[in-house]
Please model this.
Amino acid sequence: MSFELQNVRRVFSLQANTWDMKKNLIMSKHGETRRLYQLLKDIIKKNDYVLDMGCGTGKVTKHILNEYPHAHVFSADISLNMLKNLNNKIANGNCLLMDGERNSFCDNVFDVVAAQQFLHHTASPSLVLNEIYRITKTNGHFLLLTVGDEHHKNVFPYEGIGMLQDPFGRVSKEEIIHLLEKSHFIVDQVIADFFQFEFLSFDYYVDFIYSIGSLHKIYQYNEPPATVRSYLRKLLIDAGQIRADGTVFLDGHYISIVARKNPILRKVI
Model:
């Protein structure tokens, strides 16, 4: 699977105004999906320089600003509309428009870089990780939350083809550790969280995966075809994920990782 960054930018720019409403489409969610916040608690220190990479409308940024008021917080995203919405809510002056593969920060700037549900929307995860490594201080931390290989696997079997090729950008624990270590990060902690989504109806489910860009990712960030609803309905029915009352349930799997910049290898080779 290959896609153009301009298409990614277009998709998320269009989703920006309704981005914060997507949670209203979920009837319930059972299990841990906020692991990144717990991990940040043990990492961020007073006066740390912190980057929320792929910040969207600022959910993680807002959390960091509220919980760690003495930190210097920066937010970066590929979509100007996302950043405008962030500033409307938070008024964080440190917002930058950039993609992860070519950011404008100097070397060794940040004590902590956090990226939630960001890496699988990039065209070259390896280049992005190299850049994050470059801008992180020696012994600084990178906290990543991404989609695991068992996410929706009962409907979309995972074929082990890697984050870039998988239609949802899923990745196994071993694969993501390999990517991080290839960029010379030291992986300190890996946590797999399993949970379940429930949606009031099939339409709510489709609207949800449309609203988060997952449906677009299946089609290389182009607009999904008109037949996509009948295609998804058949998949869900065949997998037994639509109950008699019409509600939809799906298994979820997130992987959270705490990695650290190698204190010996200061530059990516």
About this structure: The first strand starts at residue 28 and ends at 30. The chain is about 30% helix and 25% strand.
